[in-house]
Amino acid sequence: MYRLSFYVPASHLEPVKQSLFEQGAGRFGDYDSCAWQVLGEGQFRPLAGSEPYLGHIGQVQHIAEYKVEMVCADHLIKTVVQTLLACHPYQQPAYEVYKIVTTDDLP
Predict the structure, then answer these.
(1) Residue 24 DSSP class
(2) How confident is the model at residue 70 (pLDDT cuts 50, 70, 90)?
(3) Which one, 2, 11, 46, 76, has least CB within 10 Å?
């Protein structure tokens, strides 16, 4: 199992989560659509050559963003990440993928 963490603007929180849930992310035992999220403020400065979703080249942009975490089965993680990249509004979404080790995996 993996944990996917990503940042998404508040305006796109629900559509992005729903797209990932439809691919099978967020399923844990007898539950689906499982996620943890927290609101914060992100910042970035688009550099020359970028195509920012918002903001202007060379200017620091601040935006309300959510950090979202959800689990994902091993056989689905590549498809889920591809879906995240396709449905996220940012040119380069910030995300992380962690392998989860359970007690069943320990020697």
Answers:
(1) T
(2) very high
(3) 11
User: In this structure, are residues 95 and 68 in contact, taking their beta carbons and an 8 Å threshold?
Assistant: no
DSSP character at residue 30: T
d(CA 14, CA 106): 36
pLDDT digits (tens, 9 = 90+) for 17-40: 999 999 999 999 999 999 999 999
**Please, what are the domains in the chain?**
2-102 (3.30.70.120)
Q: What is the pTM of this model?
A: 0.90
* Torsion-angle region of 13 (φ positive above 0: left; ψ -120 to 50: alpha; else: beta): alpha
Residues 6+ apart with CB under 8 A from 93: 6, 7, 8, 84, 85
